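Recall that a protein's primary structure is simply its ordered list of amino acids. Everything else, from secondary elements to tertiary packing, is in principle encoded there. The following example makes that idea concrete.
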Amino acid sequence: MKENLLFYNAYQNFYKMADESEVFKTYCKRAFGEDFSQDGFSDLNQLNMILSMVDIDNKANVLDVGCGNGKMLEYIHSKTGARIYGFDYSENAISSARKRMGDRGSFKVAVIGEAEYDDNKFDLITSMDTMYFAPDMIAFVSSVYKWLKLNGSFICGYQEGDIMKKTKDCNTTELAKALRENDLKYKVIDYTKETYDMLRHKRKVIKSMKEDFINAGLLMWYRVIKGQTNSVKVSYEKYKKKNARYIYKVIKENF
């Protein structure tokens, strides 16, 4: 049952709120630079950096793993013209994506590890804070690699200290292990300091909007969001001992 999946009910409620609340949309724009209905670590600077790492145009196919309501894909489409695809386990999220994007994208309800796509289909596959939901990360990495075209890229934003425990470095994460088990080469950007700074800004923004959230009947969400920033009440030196963020990139070099 989906209700037993990680955070399923919470995300159903989250995406309903994200669609309906102008206060939350304003918060996202102020905290992250753009409203992607964020409930994580992806801001506009990070997404623009990722786009600078690939050569994507209007002939490309782009898939987002765990796409939520598709707002990040919508931004990618606006910048590149690429054909966009996404899947998520939240029916509310996918319904929102379909209504907003229409025939500009293809979205489906699916669970990581069960979603299916044709081999050699995508020029870019993104996974922003969604690999943790894979019941078998090694097997899912294998599927992602098959879905990529030759010279296509898989780019993953991966956080430790939240769902996943902090390990020694970028080569000891569960994702790094899964990539090596599939004999895949990868490059990594350590994005920990940028994430710390973003979370500090996020905390400042949410605290400044407390009355707006209360007046909108969203006190619970205010508390949830503020709680997500508790990790940055300490100095960066202390933060990085328990938290890390990495951006992994894999290029498909062979079939």
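The chain has a mean pLDDT of 95. The chain has one domain: 2-251.
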